[in-house]
């Protein structure tokens, strides 16, 4: 199943183009599911059909769903209170009624991730189009499953779960209550659910499509997002330049904006597959307007983002790890080695990545940023490296 994640700067028209992309795919015969995460029904406004938690058939072969974060939050917290009943009673805590629960910040993002996970098996659809939040929030959202799994495994290590039968004995020896069964069961369930979302994002048929208006603001937004996309190894299949003005307009006032967009499009084409969508002269509303946009089809999956390790032992005595980081700035780069992991910071983005097995037996010998690629040199550790290499 093909999964297309659509995002872009705020106000770029990403929701409208997500709706148009899904509608065009369905019109072409593809069974399509469109997911949205906006609190306001922007997808429904574009399609002319109200959407909500229940799946809605907006057109033949097109189903639209917008999860309800408030309902999901109340259900999850109520279930958690039930599983932690003994601990809450021990603390003398009062239960919260579902009617008094208000979703906390982040509930919308978690609801969208859950919907993405649940939609992935795709028994009734062949294409999943996801209308993500604006770029900065979208990048944080796509990083969330991996980060949460990391925190979860540190706080409730999987190896501790294997010693459940020993907890009563350990509790008596330590003289303090040991974690209850519900904690381990909850951690295991969350780990499984987060792993399912990670699998969708890492799938070879999952790609990101960026929507932006061609101009200085759009160019800055895509440039700033480049390192974040690359660090997560997210594949960008295309950049859709939205609201493109006509080149041959008799209106002289448009000469300046047209020149700006022409310059931006030339820059984008050097890096991305760029598709243009003309400005209709009005906000698109309804299926006819969406069809008139002529958005690009879902296309095929983009090639995987490779982080190759080059063997230069014979020539320079080092291994070089190549990490593509388009848009990264040297002064905003930072590297920290933590055991068998590397903490990479590029601008406002950070990721902790495991080292390839060969590099775990090496020491960092230096790093350089060249032509949008981070190249990290590793020298073999004589105490760990096999002799004869």
Structure, explained:
- The chain is α/β, with parallel strands linked by helices.
- The protein contains 13 helices and 15 strands.
- It folds into two domains: 2-69 and 103-292, P-loop containing nucleotide triphosphate hydrolases (Rossmann fold); 309-380, Immunoglobulin-like, CATH 2.60.40.790.
- It has an eight-stranded mixed beta sheet, with helices on both faces. A four-stranded antiparallel beta sheet has the order 9-10-15-14. It has a three-stranded antiparallel beta sheet with strand order 11-12-13, with helices on one face.
- Helix content is 39%, strand content 23%.
- The longest helix is centred in the middle third of the chain and has 22 residues, at 181-202.
- Helix 3 packs across helix 5 (107-119).
- The protein has helices at residues 14-27, 42-47, 69-83, 85-91, 107-119, 135-155, 158-161, 167-174, 181-202, 216-231, 255-269, 286-292, 313-316; strands spanning 2-7, 32-36, 56-59, 62-65, 127-131, 206-212, 236-244, 274-278, 309-312, 318-324, 333-338, 341-346, 349-354, 362-370, 373-380.
- The chain starts with a strand and ends in a 9-residue tail after the last strand.
Task: Reconstruct the topology from this structure.
Layout: E1 2-7, H1 14-27, E2 32-36, H2 42-47, E3 56-59, E4 62-65, H3 69-83, H4 85-91, H5 107-119, E5 127-131, H6 135-155, H7 158-161, H8 167-174, H9 181-202, E6 206-212, H10 216-231, E7 236-244, H11 255-269, E8 274-278, H12 286-292, E9 309-312, H13 313-316, E10 318-324, E11 333-338, E12 341-346, E13 349-354, E14 362-370, E15 373-380
Parallel strand pairs: 1-5, 1-6, 2-4, 2-5, 6-7, 7-8
Antiparallel strand pairs: 3-4, 9-10, 10-15, 11-12, 12-13, 14-15
């Amino acid at each position: 199943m093909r999964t297309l994640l659509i995002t872009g700067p705020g106000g770029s028209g990403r929701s409208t183009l997500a709706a148009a992309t899904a509608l065009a795919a369905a019109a072409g015969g593809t069974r399509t599911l469109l997911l949205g995460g906006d609190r306001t029904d922007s997808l429904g406004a574009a399609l002319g059909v109200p959407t909500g938690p229940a799946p809605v058939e907006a057109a033949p072969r097109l189903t639209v769903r917008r999860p309800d974060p408030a309902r999901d939050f109340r259900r999850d917290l109520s279930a958690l209170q039930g599983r932690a009943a003994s601990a809450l009673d021990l603390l003398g805590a009062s239960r919260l009624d579902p009617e008094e629960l208000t979703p906390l910040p982040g509930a919308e993002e978690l609801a969208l991730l859950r919907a993405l996970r649940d939609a992935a098996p795709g028994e009734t659809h062949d294409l999943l189009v996801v209308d993500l939040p604006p770029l900065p929030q979208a990048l944080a959202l796509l990083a969330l499953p991996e980060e949460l799994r990391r925190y979860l495994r540190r706080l409730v290590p999987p190896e501790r779960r294997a010693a459940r039968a020993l907890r009563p004995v350990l509790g008596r020896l330590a003289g303090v209550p040991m974690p209850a069964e519900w904690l381990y069961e909850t951690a295991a369930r969350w780990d499984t659910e987060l792993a399912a979302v990670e699998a969708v994002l890492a799938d070879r048929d999952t790609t990101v499509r960026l929507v932006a208006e061609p101009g200085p603001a759009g160019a800055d937004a895509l440039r700033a997002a480049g390192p974040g996309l690359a660090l997560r190894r997210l594949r960008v299949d295309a950049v859709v330049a939205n609201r493109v003005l006509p080149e041959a307009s008799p209106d002289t006032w448009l000469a300046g904006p047209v020149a700006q967009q022409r310059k931006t499009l030339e820059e984008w084409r050097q890096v991305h597959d760029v598709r243009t969508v003309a400005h209709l002269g009005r906000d698109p509303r309804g299926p006819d307007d969406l069809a008139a946009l002529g958005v690009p089809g879902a296309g095929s999956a983009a090639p995987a983002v490779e982080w190759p390790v080059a063997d230069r032992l014979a020539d320079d005595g080092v291994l070089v790890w190549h990490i593509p980081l388009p848009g990264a700035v040297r002064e905003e780069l930072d590297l920290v080695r933590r055991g068998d992991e590397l903490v990479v910071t590029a601008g406002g983005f950070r990721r902790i990545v495991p080292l390839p097995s060969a590099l775990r037996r090496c020491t960092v010998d230096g790093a350089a940023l060249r032509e949008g690629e981070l190249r990290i040199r590793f020298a073999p550790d004589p105490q760990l490296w096999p002799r004869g290499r």
